Amino acid sequence: MNKMLLIGAAVMVAVVTVSAADVKENWEKNCTKCHGADGKGDTKMGKKLEIKDFTDAKYQASMKDEEMLKAMKDGVKDGEKVRMKAVEGLSDDDMKALVKFVRDFKK
Question: pTM of the predicted model, to two decimals?
Fold first, then answer.
């Protein structure tokens, strides 16, 4: 019985590790060009679009999780100008994981 618990625990750790790797990979693939690897928006495109700093606790407090999810699903427009394209190929769970990933940037 203890052996089964150990195997179950090992599988859970593997799933969590894979999940953490997936969210980082999704961030790098979909977000870093503008938001930067560190979430500060200190990239060429981030500066051009005046991207907000996700490490700023005050800015983080102004964002709701639902707003971030909507931005990923629908994109962000400023009038007719697209500021952020909708993220494609990610499940709702992947997007929720990205929201948590962004929350972890807060200092």
Answer: 0.77
User: What's the pLDDT at 10?
Assistant: 46
Q: Are 23 and 98 in contact (CB under 8 A)?
A: yes
Give strand ranges (E) for 1-107. 76-78, 81-84
Question: Domain-by-domain residue ranges, the chain?
Answer: 2-103
Distances (CA, A) of 80 to 68, 76, 88, 92: 20, 10, 20, 26
Backbone torsion region of residue 86, taken as left when φ is above 0, otherwise alpha when ψ lies between -120 and 50, otherwise beta? beta
N- to C-terminal Cα distance for the chain? 43
**Per-residue confidence (pLDDT) for residue 18, from 0 to 100:** 40
**How many Cα atoms are found within 13 Å in the side-chain-facing hemisphere of 32?**
9
Per-residue pLDDT reduced to its tens digit, 52-97? 999 999 999 999 999 999 999 999 998 888 899 999 999 999 999 9
Exposed/middle/buried for residue 68 (C-beta within 10 Å: 0-12, 13-18, 19+)? middle
